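Amino acids appear as letters; backbone shape is given numerically. Here is one record.
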Amino acid sequence: MHPQVESLIRIALAEDVGTGDLTARSVVDPAATASGRMLLKQRGVISGMSVVRHVLESVDPEIEWHPVVADGDVLQDPTTLGEIAGPARSILTAERTALNFIQRLSGIATATREYVDAVAGTNARIVDTRKTTPGMRVLEKQAVRDGGGHNHRFGLFDGVLIKDNHIAAMGGDKAIASIIDQARMHVPHTVRIEIEVTSLEQLNLALSASVDVIMLDNMPPETMRRAVEITSGRALLEASGGVTLKTVRAIAETGVDLISVGALTHSAPALDISLDLALS
């Protein structure tokens, strides 16, 4: 388990359980055991099964978790995701935190799969953004992969993306070539350099500097199509800005290589998953 995920689980349990589960302590016999299943109630793509296991183990190592599906599985409802057994108090204490994780992550995986399916048959790949829940980026980007999508840069530290405010801070469009050259001087040769453009004029300036990736920001499809023709394979082209399920197919058909979708992580609804228990 990634150290950041372990830390996140500790934080999640601390905010929910705190000094102890008052309800379970008050009404559940400490010797009672329970068993049950985690149930998916709608069609979706699963992500977060290993997180559930770590949450349960963190609360009580005596809890037994037996998953029957895997991350990335596309499932119909109702479907059993896994079976659980162990001390009743402990299961009840861990229930909400475990569900919060898997509902959120499976929602992202499901939303991603919808976008991936929408562009099927084109050359475009669906990628995520940095618009993630603070602290949950490792898990949310994994959920995107579980849904069939691809990851953009993980953070500011592993990729160069020169955006409009960088260009403005360095002198405007006339400085685009020099900004790209400067970036190339300061990063390893293994790192791709990407720049955001909003016009075909900026596109040509970026191409003249032999940039690796060009983000076409909020361009209509007809302009993107022209950008693809102008670029002619000299750089990867990424479409970005206001992408929805209604528009993503038309964007993909322009011939762009990548389509970044912030909604995958900032707007995906949680999947409906519950935990059904009974005394054993």
Summary: DSSP finds eleven helices and twelve strands in the chain.
